[in-house]
Structures are given as structure tokens and as C-alpha cells.
Design a protein that fits this description.
The chain has 247 residues and is mainly β. It is built from three helices and 13 strands, in the order ββββββααββββαβββ. The protein folds into two domains: 43 residues, no CATH class; 197 residues, no CATH class. Strands 6, 7, 8, 9, 10, 11, 12 and 13 form an eight-stranded mixed beta sheet that branches. The structure holds zinc ion (ZN). Zinc ion (ZN) binds next to loops.
Length: 247
């Protein structure tokens, strides 16, 4: 287990705890955000999505998830027991970009094959998770961006935990570029069978640092433990382990 270290918040003087690997820390007393390495204030936009559930209210989305869908054992909601429910504010970078890929490839689904050229042009609010989080489905997470407000430490519940980012803005932009390029390469499979040339141009419009509320739930069913991840802003299940049911 890594030992946490302290720096002083340059705004209010309170100790700000961080762990090795974390590079941006938010003060839990005043919400001021500091870049750990330099000790300087974080100068980009920091936003927050609000959590809508307390520890009792979160039972409802958990139950709803257990009761819905065919793949689940019919007695799942009745027979399972919630072992843990932890609210974490996960750090994300939302990179707003225009991405343009020009390509040349060979379309082989007709005879004779033809050379095809074209462009894929899209806009994204591309999400990069600021750290490793056990099995968090970043690509499937449709961030409810409409609800974001400027970061406000007073809205963070006392039972919740705010995680710091382990990557900085430049690293987040680089990751977003790589992931978008890979995504476009994937999309191109529909257009051509062989890619001859591909060039992606990415124009970054904005990058926002965002903390989003995510509930990590552990439940027990027939002696085994499973995980369920719920979006605290909407109550939607983002990912859930389903016990195998025998028919
Ligand atoms: Zn502070």
C-alpha cells in the first residue's frame, strides 16, 4: 500500500493529501486545485457533476437494475445483499475536438476491387479517465454533460471520496488523439477492406477537468460477490456483473 504524502493548499493552507502517481490534487476544505509537481494552481477549467443519491436512495437504482433484464436470475433483487456502496468522484478529462481523417483504401467486396478515397469528419467530447479504476467502462459512459457546474467542494458529500488525476492535460490530449485515431481506424472497416493511407488531423477546442460521481457497489448473491457501477448523476447502471443463472 502506497503511503500518502502531504502538500499545503496554496489557497487555504490546509494539508492536501495525495498518493504517489497522482499529479493534480483538489483541496477538500476549499476546493482549490493544485498541480502537485509544481505546487502551482491548476489553471484550466475544473467542473463537477452532481450526485443525486444518498446512501439510502442509491438502493433504488440498485434494485431497478437487479429487477430488469432477462439475463438475470429472477430472484436476484430478493436474494442478494449489498455489501458495500461507495461513492467516488472520478477524475476525467473531456477533450472537445474536431477530428478529420482522410483515407485511401481498397474496397474488395465487389469484383474487381476498387480504390476508394474519402474523409471521416466528426466532433467529439472525448472522455479520458484520469486514472486506473477497476473495470470502469469509459467508452460506454455517456457523460451527462448538461448537468456540469464549476467545481464546488461544498457539494461533495462527507461520505464520498474524490480521486485525483494521475495524468495531466497534455497527456490527456495525447491519449484522446490516439484513441480517436484508433476509433476512426475501426470505423474505416466499414468503408474499405484494406487501408492504404490514413491521416488524422485533430483540432482541440477545449479540455475540461471534470469530477463525476460514480457509485461502486459490491453485492453478494448465493455466496459469491459481484460488482455494479452506477452513474450517480443519473442512476443508470454503467456496468454490472450478472450471476450466471441455470435454466
Ligand atoms: Zn484549500
Amino acid at each position: 500500500m502506497a503511503v500518502a504524502q502531504n502538500i499545503r493548499c496554496s489557497h487555504c493552507g490546509a494539508p492536501v493529501e495525495f498518493k504517489p502517481g497522482e499529479i493534480i490534487a483538489t483541496c477538500e476544505y476549499c476546493g482549490f486545485t493544485t498541480v502537485i509537481e509544481t505546487g502551482k494552481p491548476f489553471k484550466f477549467k475544473h467542473s463537477l457533476l452532481l450526485n443525486k443519491f444518498d446512501e439510502t436512495q442509491i438502493k433504488e437504482p440498485i434494485m431497478n437494475w437487479m429487477r430488469s433484464g432477462f439475463l438475470k436470475p429472477p430472484d436476484l433483487a430478493k436474494k442478494s445483499k449489498t455489501l458495500e456502496k461507495n461513492l467516488l468522484y472520478l477524475p476525467f478529462w473531456i477533450v472537445s475536438v474536431e477530428a478529420k481523417t482522410s483515407y485511401k483504401g481498397i474496397f474488395e467486396r465487389i469484383a474487381p476491387p476498387i480504390v476508394k478515397e474519402g474523409k471521416i469528419q466528426k466532433e467529439y467530447n472525448w472522455l479520458v479517465l484520469g486514472r486506473e479504476a477497476a473495470g470502469f467502462p469509459t467508452r460506454e459512459y455517456d457523460v451527462p454533460l448538461g448537468g456540469k457546474i464549476p467545481y464546488d467542494f461544498r457539494k461533495i458529500e462527507s461520505f464520498a471520496k474524490v480521486l485525483n488525476s494521475e495524468i495531466d492535460r497534455a497527456e490527456a490530449l495525447e491519449l484522446a488523439k490516439q484513441q480517436i485515431e484508433a476509433h476512426h481506424r475501426y470505423l474505416l472497416q466499414q468503408e474499405v477492406d484494406k487501408i492504404v493511407e490514413m491521416f488524422t488531423e485533430i483540432n482541440v477546442k477545449q479540455a475540461v477537468y471534470l469530477h463525476a460521481p460514480v457509485w461502486f457497489v459490491k453485492y453478494e448473491y448465493k455466496g459469491k460477490t459481484y460488482q455494479l457501477i452506477i452513474d450517480g448523476a443519473t442512476g443508470m447502471a454503467l456496468k454490472g456483473d450478472i450471476p450466471a443463472s441455470k435454466f
